[in-house]
Amino acid sequence: MPPLLAVEKLEAGYGPINVLHGISLTVEPGEIVAMIGANGAGKTTTLMCLSGVVKARGGRVVFDGRDLTAEKVPAHQVVRLGLAQSPEGRKIFPRLTVLENLQMGAFTRTDADGVAADVEKAFTMFPILRERQHQAGGLLSGGQQQMLAIARALMSRPKLLLLDEPSLGLAPQIVVQIFDVIRELNRQGMSVLLVEQNARMALKVAHRGYVLETGRVTFSDRAAALLDDPRIRAAYLGE
Amino acid sequence: MSPRAVLAAAWQPALFLALAALPFVPDRQVGLYTQQLTPLFILALLALGLNVVVGYTGLLHLGIAAFFGIGAYAVGILTVQTFPFQLAFPLAILVGVLAAAGLGVATTAPTLRLRGDYLALVTMGFGLIIVFVIRNLGNITEGTRGLNPVTPKLLPWVADPDLRAVRPEGMGWGRYWHDYPYFYLLCLGLLGATTLLLRNLENSRLGRSWVALREDELAASCMGLNPAKLKLTAIAIGAGIAGLAGGLYAIAQQTTGGPEAYDFNRSMITLCCVILGGLGNRPGVLLGVFLLVGYDMVLTPVLDTAVQKPDFQNLFPEWMRGKQYLKVSGWRLIVFGMALILMMRFRPEGLLPAARLKHELHPGPAAAAKG
Question: How big is chain A by its Cα radius of gyration, in Å?
Answer without folding.
Answer: 17
